[in-house]
Amino acid sequence: MTDQHPDTSANGSTGASHNSPSTNPDHEVPTATGPAPPSTVPPGGHPPTAGLTSKGKIRRTRVSAWWVGLIAAAILLVALLIFIAQNSHTVTIHYLGFEGQASLAVALLLAAVAGLLLVAIPGTARIMQLRRALKKNAAAAQSNG
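Now predict its structure.
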């Protein structure tokens, strides 16, 4: 069986130490002080290929995350449309002495959005508080170091 790895030299020997940084920018070439750290070359002896993790899996990108998010949003919207179509009959809603007529689906979706906002507002405030504290700590560490 022939070696199909791109790091096979003209004399048939294999090894990652003769790759130049221009052919494989993710690979650190060992210096005269010693071989590359064990974390840069996986157990198989070959450096990770661009676009792949050290385990050979495809790296995730921001674009792929957006794509997955858009697909999930589309599925959610289809589910909401089905929900609205199946629950379109009108119901009477009583709230704090007020009374009104609304579609059951609209009433339930408004209740869900209100619940989401009740959770999101304090959560957002807490995230902002933590970010401010992190920035202060980072600035303090940078001025001390």
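The beta strands are 90-95, 98-103.
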